[in-house]
């Protein structure tokens, strides 16, 4: 068991023939992910990496029964790519693209209301179910199979957490990179819910950042519904207010979205909050023993 | 990207949003001339001179070493010249600039909007921004204008109103009317306010702002509705389709090291601490800063070198960090996934040798693909570089370096 993606996920790559798409599709195929084809407008009918290329997502779904899509389309066209995938009935859309204008995402969020499509990202490393499917840009070898789920706004910090978890002898079930933008498809609380309801996941690592209220929302839900330990870390305890720290969403707007405020709410809601990113693995190991 | 008041007002005029108009100048003679023009235009002896910096609180702020405020009223041309002389080239310190203040390169000579007339004047507050949780734009407004809105929100939250704009319908006429009613406006002022809010929202969308704040939104004595001050932030991600707006960037308002880092495609934010850091990934970079603090140091910067940490980026990173004399140690923290650690290590060694005169402790933590090979390369390089693989080891090394 796992969440969102597994061996039977049939994956389509949007922006397949571009540099990023080609590089990461190759890596995903090597990992064992079932990539069934790709989409690049005006290159339909050709093949790339021995997989068929289609002009539209709808054509690709018809021919391959793809149910997951991963997007490597440049920022100016990424919102369109997400909506095209949703319209074609793709159940899970994972958008890696960084730098999508926020008003484009307002449109996307509205477009997806009431649709059966779940969006992960944008500006995220993707989703990996260890040993089954890697649909993203993360280094697969770090994620050894096991029983800990990860939800994270950040890429390399997810790798860091996964590495510590694996070295603590625990291993990863599914790691979900939800993305660092102000508007994302799947907020922290929804990703945590998925892992909380996954019988194979025994503990959850939740990694947040300054900015917004997603971690506080998740913490309140966890307080009422926790069935397994949650270890939390918020990056940006030393970040100055009003400055964007790399990610478009990582900016302190007021007293409530500082790292300190989020860590306080998380602690109050029973989450094992670590101040140092070096303590994620050992804290989870200790929490599981309790 | 932040804009100056005078730039924002020019843009608003294109969307038929009435503003307190004026002329931006950078020298005393031009200021006098601007005063004369404004006087003729308005048939009023009073004009307002406003320092143009990327920070609020200018009216209460003072130019360093003087009693000159950042916003002042000129009664005649001589007055205008004196105020201009006091402000231009001075450093303005406000509650938002921090104690270092900001150098003023331009002033805006503007109309006086408090002219007498048949009705009382009123000041309101209105801003448009993104509600991240809802994924919608929201108009936030209050009858308490011209004051610090955060204080209003804190002390009298009932005086703050919000109007969410649904993305499919856009701002609807009834919503604009509701705002004008809540301001307590009637007659011509009401009609003008509905138009103002509608046009302002169009400007927000058209310019792809991330925040647009009008404080005060002003009702004149003859019932016009105008923007007296305007704070406009543009969505950096949208600038690719607005080259005209991208050209409005004023780099003199930014930290010079940050500007230089941008030229190397490095994501850099200058801070006040003593331990520099260079990291791949924004989240890990923030986490590394936090770890420096927990180890007894203070982060000197945020620096995300991105996915390709090679010799060039590492060299550029070293150069940028070492411009800061407060830096007593540098921590390089790279989690190699797709990028191999041994290649990063080779890059660090190459950059170190090329720069030659690094005489502060360098701690390199390389984890991930080929981490062991990377550590070996660093350890055998003969350089005064300390290496680590685990994050906790790196933290201990920082602790020793700052002790």
From TrEMBL, chain A:
<dbReference type="GO" id="GO:0006099">
    <property type="term" value="P:tricarboxylic acid cycle"/>
</dbReference>
<dbReference type="InterPro" id="IPR036291">
    <property type="entry name" value="NAD(P)-bd_dom_sf"/>
</dbReference>
<protein>
    <recommendedName>
        <fullName>Succinate--CoA ligase [ADP-forming] subunit alpha</fullName>
        <ecNumber>6.2.1.5</ecNumber>
    </recommendedName>
</protein>
<dbReference type="GO" id="GO:0004775">
    <property type="term" value="F:succinate-CoA ligase (ADP-forming) activity"/>
</dbReference>
<feature type="active site" description="Tele-phosphohistidine intermediate">
    <location>
        <position position="247"/>
    </location>
</feature>
<feature type="binding site">
    <location>
        <begin position="17"/>
        <end position="20"/>
    </location>
    <ligand>
        <name>CoA</name>
    </ligand>
</feature>
<dbReference type="GO" id="GO:0000166">
    <property type="term" value="F:nucleotide binding"/>
</dbReference>
<keyword id="KW-0436">Ligase</keyword>
<keyword id="KW-0547">Nucleotide-binding</keyword>
<comment type="pathway">
    <text>Carbohydrate metabolism; tricarboxylic acid cycle; succinate from succinyl-CoA (ligase route): step 1/1.</text>
</comment>
<dbReference type="InterPro" id="IPR003781">
    <property type="entry name" value="CoA-bd"/>
</dbReference>
<dbReference type="InterPro" id="IPR005810">
    <property type="entry name" value="CoA_lig_alpha"/>
</dbReference>
<comment type="subunit">
    <text>Heterotetramer of two alpha and two beta subunits.</text>
</comment>
<comment type="similarity">
    <text>Belongs to the succinate/malate CoA ligase alpha subunit family.</text>
</comment>
<dbReference type="GO" id="GO:0004776">
    <property type="term" value="F:succinate-CoA ligase (GDP-forming) activity"/>
</dbReference>
<feature type="domain" description="CoA-binding">
    <location>
        <begin position="4"/>
        <end position="100"/>
    </location>
</feature>
<dbReference type="GO" id="GO:0009361">
    <property type="term" value="C:succinate-CoA ligase complex (ADP-forming)"/>
</dbReference>
<dbReference type="InterPro" id="IPR017440">
    <property type="entry name" value="Cit_synth/succinyl-CoA_lig_AS"/>
</dbReference>
<feature type="binding site">
    <location>
        <begin position="96"/>
        <end position="98"/>
    </location>
    <ligand>
        <name>CoA</name>
    </ligand>
</feature>
<dbReference type="Pfam" id="PF00549">
    <property type="entry name" value="Ligase_CoA"/>
</dbReference>
<feature type="binding site">
    <location>
        <position position="43"/>
    </location>
    <ligand>
        <name>CoA</name>
    </ligand>
</feature>
<dbReference type="InterPro" id="IPR033847">
    <property type="entry name" value="Citrt_syn/SCS-alpha_CS"/>
</dbReference>
Automatic annotation (TrEMBL), chain B:
<dbReference type="GO" id="GO:0006099">
    <property type="term" value="P:tricarboxylic acid cycle"/>
</dbReference>
<dbReference type="InterPro" id="IPR005811">
    <property type="entry name" value="SUCC_ACL_C"/>
</dbReference>
<keyword id="KW-0547">Nucleotide-binding</keyword>
<dbReference type="InterPro" id="IPR013650">
    <property type="entry name" value="ATP-grasp_succ-CoA_synth-type"/>
</dbReference>
<dbReference type="GO" id="GO:0000287">
    <property type="term" value="F:magnesium ion binding"/>
</dbReference>
<comment type="function">
    <text>Succinyl-CoA synthetase functions in the citric acid cycle (TCA), coupling the hydrolysis of succinyl-CoA to the synthesis of either ATP or GTP and thus represents the only step of substrate-level phosphorylation in the TCA. The beta subunit provides nucleotide specificity of the enzyme and binds the substrate succinate, while the binding sites for coenzyme A and phosphate are found in the alpha subunit.</text>
</comment>
<dbReference type="GO" id="GO:0004775">
    <property type="term" value="F:succinate-CoA ligase (ADP-forming) activity"/>
</dbReference>
<keyword id="KW-0816">Tricarboxylic acid cycle</keyword>
<dbReference type="InterPro" id="IPR017866">
    <property type="entry name" value="Succ-CoA_synthase_bsu_CS"/>
</dbReference>
<dbReference type="GO" id="GO:0005524">
    <property type="term" value="F:ATP binding"/>
</dbReference>
<dbReference type="GO" id="GO:0006104">
    <property type="term" value="P:succinyl-CoA metabolic process"/>
</dbReference>
<feature type="domain" description="ATP-citrate synthase/succinyl-CoA ligase C-terminal">
    <location>
        <begin position="278"/>
        <end position="395"/>
    </location>
</feature>
<dbReference type="InterPro" id="IPR016102">
    <property type="entry name" value="Succinyl-CoA_synth-like"/>
</dbReference>
<dbReference type="Pfam" id="PF00549">
    <property type="entry name" value="Ligase_CoA"/>
</dbReference>
<keyword id="KW-0436">Ligase</keyword>
<dbReference type="GO" id="GO:0004776">
    <property type="term" value="F:succinate-CoA ligase (GDP-forming) activity"/>
</dbReference>
<feature type="binding site">
    <location>
        <position position="123"/>
    </location>
    <ligand>
        <name>ATP</name>
    </ligand>
</feature>
<feature type="binding site">
    <location>
        <position position="229"/>
    </location>
    <ligand>
        <name>Mg(2+)</name>
    </ligand>
</feature>
<protein>
    <recommendedName>
        <fullName>Succinate--CoA ligase [ADP-forming] subunit beta</fullName>
        <ecNumber>6.2.1.5</ecNumber>
    </recommendedName>
</protein>
<keyword id="KW-0460">Magnesium</keyword>
<feature type="binding site">
    <location>
        <position position="113"/>
    </location>
    <ligand>
        <name>ATP</name>
    </ligand>
</feature>
<feature type="binding site">
    <location>
        <position position="50"/>
    </location>
    <ligand>
        <name>ATP</name>
    </ligand>
</feature>
